[in-house]
Specification:
With 678 residues, this protein is an alpha+beta fold. Helix 6 crosses helix 7. Helix content is 28%, strand content 25%.
């Protein structure tokens, strides 16, 4: 065995053994992205894929109800979508502990947090701790001597709008349901809850949607649980465990989930990595009750043997988070895919319905996600939803330049699905619609001399520029190369795109563009650019409606601090974090809809993803190019792996270099084309 391979295997073995110790938590900074408009994240106590979290509400606040620099706290809220736009989403049932009078301010003194846990103390002597397990949480409040109690606002939301609620109070327990607007007020969701104080409390005041209670106890524990189905299920979910037991269970759950992807390298980069991986494992939300009951987006209750998920942001994360989960969470991912397919049976809409079982955002490009999952080996019952898939496609939007390209992608995905299910005639019809992307592209994206090509939302597009959207033909990159005038001009324009800093690493419209050199005779440029935007200093011009020439941001895109993400970046339920995570482990999805992953040099010298053990030989800070690759000792003459190869696992060794091997990755290439259909 070669010495470098032996060393790599020893590193991987040590990494694997270390991760099996539950008492040794992986480093996660829950305060990353929690200050200013730098990610819109919160330090809330959370549990993997749970609809319940418990976190602080501050004044002033960002989209998640929290600002790291704020000293004034308004209380603590439950359930939120991390990193989404439209001024945030969720933030229900605000609970404010108080001394003497409810109106007195809570001024932060100390604060701490970790996965599954959040704690804060105030200058008035109140101390608060929060933890949870699945959909059940514990809140512990310690008061100084004197009068004290709680104010409970059942109508509280962040920005998405309160709709209605019903509640009842029996002794020290409050139960009921709350209905709120979903993200961007596109629909509504309803959840059921039960909250119970362990110590006696006296309810002294109430309005239509708020309660005030007092207690003589200085150490008070509140138990709370959520359900999408009913109050009875929420009451049944109230945990009888102690705070320490629940905290340990939550920590163990997070350790288990985070250990599904292990890295070894620079310690500071490891901390950043796990802090971002943590954000990829919070949504969608697992809803199913112990007996299989769950509520769907049509408001009705169903039963199933597996798990049901809700809380989607597919437009944002179908290029990054969902592909990552397909290799990282195979069991959960099958249930997620089944849940997405079931939306077509219960009234799927692009944005939320008016009867969602949990807070959600949007589900455009689910057609692509289902095709992608099927080709990666996941089960999808296309036969039962075929008519609704076609119906959705018949209502695709082609009225704006960006929508025309995105809708063409969905037409392509539907054509592929129909072909796979034996409907060749219909497949040809939808493939012909997909081919029309070239007409829309020639009209709006070919000419780069127009004065608006670098302006956000020009020509009524959504959150992107002409420069950024022009690369969006992931299913037909060969066609795009031809439309640009051939590979030489395609490369020239890609070079101009990055050299001119037209790329926007703070949003999703062009998030896949760093991968595109892999379709050309210069794949080494993708290796360089991915490293650059993952870890080096870059220039970023685009901030909301900011155009080029106005105060660029200069620095790293990803930093492990409260203002660590780019200005105006919405992290979008794991979308932007997943881009970094994939960059860090050396994988890039070639095109959702195809089970192909491009390779580049990981940011770490050792990576474990399931059964795949990756080591980097000649690992150095500036060695960002692939010189060669072997899988189980056999050379690979291509710069990509299949999903099957990743899931099957083995020993993948990447030999890194400071200079590009311009012969690697130019043979046996994978290049998407409309002619590929099987």
């Amino acid at each position: 065995m070669r010495p470098y391979l032996l060393i790599g295997l020893l590193i991987v073995a040590a990494l694997y053994v270390a991760a099996q110790v539950p008492g040794r938590p992986l480093p996660v900074n829950v305060f990353l992205g929690t200050s200013g408009d730098h990610g819109q994240l919160s330090p809330a106590a959370s549990y993997p894929f749970s609809m319940l979290d418990i976190g602080p509400q501050t004044y002033p606040n960002t989209h998640t109800g929290y600002e790291h620099k704020a000293n004034v706290f308004l209380g603590f809220t439950h359930g939120r979508l991390e990193g989404v736009g439209c001024q945030g989403s969720g933030g229900n049932i605000l609970i404010k502990p108080f001394t003497d009078e409810p109106a007195h301010e809570l001024l932060k003194k100390t604060e701490s947090g970790s996965p599954g846990y959040y704690a804060v103390s105030f200058t008035n002597g109140i101390g608060c701790r929060f933890t949870l397990k699945e959909k059940s949480g514990l809140e512990n409040y310690r008061f100084p001597a004197g009068k004290h109690g709680f104010y409970i606002d059942l109508a509280h939301t962040l920005a998405n709008g309160f709709k209605a609620e019903q509640h009842s109070v029996v002794g020290s327990k409050v139960t009921g349901w709350v209905e709120s607007g979903t993200t961007c007020r596109a629909g509504a969701y309803r959840f059921y809850y039960a909250l119970r104080f362990d110590e006696p409390v006296r309810f002294t005041d109430s309005t239509a949607h708020s309660l005030t209670c007092r207690t003589n106890y200085t150490n008070v524990t509140l138990r709370i649980a959520f359900s999408s189905v009913s109050v009875a299920y929420a009451e049944g979910a109230l945990t009888p465990w102690s705070f320490a037991q629940v905290k340990r269970a939550g920590q163990d759950a997070w350790h288990y989930e985070l250990s599904g992807l292990l890295v070894k390298g620079d310690q500071q980069e490891e901390k950043l990595f796990y802090s971002l991986l943590y954000r990829c494992l919070q949504a969608p939300f697992e809803l199913t009750e112990p007996d299989g009951a769950y509520r769907a987006n049509d408001g009705n209750v169903y039963h199933m043997r597996g798990k049901a998920y809700a809380g989607w942001s597919v437009w944002d994360n179908y290029k990054t988070t969902l592909p990552l989960l397909s290799i990282l969470q195979p069991n959960r991912y099958q249930a997620m895919i089944t849940s997405l397919a079931n939306l077509y049976k219960t009234g799927k809409q692009n944005w939320a319905t008016d009867s969602e079982p949990a807070n959600t955002v949007r589900t455009e490009h689910t057609l692509v996600v289902l095709l992608d999952a099927y080709r990666k080996g996941y089960q999808v019952d296309f036969g039962s939803i075929k008519a609704t898939l076609i119906s959705e496609a018949e209502n695709l939007d082609f009225t704006k330049p960006d929508k025309a390209l995105e809708s063409s992608y969905d037409c392509w995905a539907l054509a592929q699905i129909l072909k796979l299910t034996g409907d060749d005639i219909a497949a040809k019809t939808w493939l012909a619609k997909a081919v029309n992307w070239k007409t829309y592209w020639n009209k709006d994206f070919k000419d780069l001399t127009q004065p608006d090509v670098d302006k956000l939302e020009a020509r009524k597009m959504y959150q992107g520029t002409i420069w950024q959207y022009r690369w969006f033909a992931p299913f037909d990159q060969q066609g795009l190369i031809n439309a640009c005038g051939g590979e030489a001009k395609y490369l020239q324009q890609l070079d101009e795109f990055f050299a001119g800093d037209y790329y926007n690493a703070a949003n999703e419209p062009d998030i896949q563009v760093p991968y595109l050199y892999n379709f050309t005779e210069e794949p080494w440029k993708s290796q360089n650019i991915i490293h650059r935007y993952a870890k080096d200093t870059v220039i970023q011009y685009y901030q909301d409606e900011n155009y080029r020439g106005i105060g660029p941001q200069i620095g790293r895109v990803y930093n492990n601090r409260p203002d660590g993400l780019l200005q105006t970046m919405d992290e979008d339920m794991g979308s932007m974090s997943a881009w970094y995570v994939l960059a860090a482990v050396g994988l890039s999805p070639a095109c959702p809809g195809w089970p192909i992953w491009y390779l580049h040099v990981p940011l770490f010298k050792a990576v474990i993803i399931g059964k795949l053990h990756m080591t980097v030989n000649n690992y150095r800070k500036n060695n960002q190019y692939i010189d060669s690759v072997t899988l189980d000792g056999k050379p690979i003459d291509r710069n990509w792996l299949t999903q099957q190869e990743i899931m099957h696992g083995g020993q993948l060794v990447i030999v890194a270099s400071a200079t590009p091997n311009k012969q690697f990755g130019i043979h046996n290439q994978f290049i998407t084309s409309l002619h590929q259909i099987n």
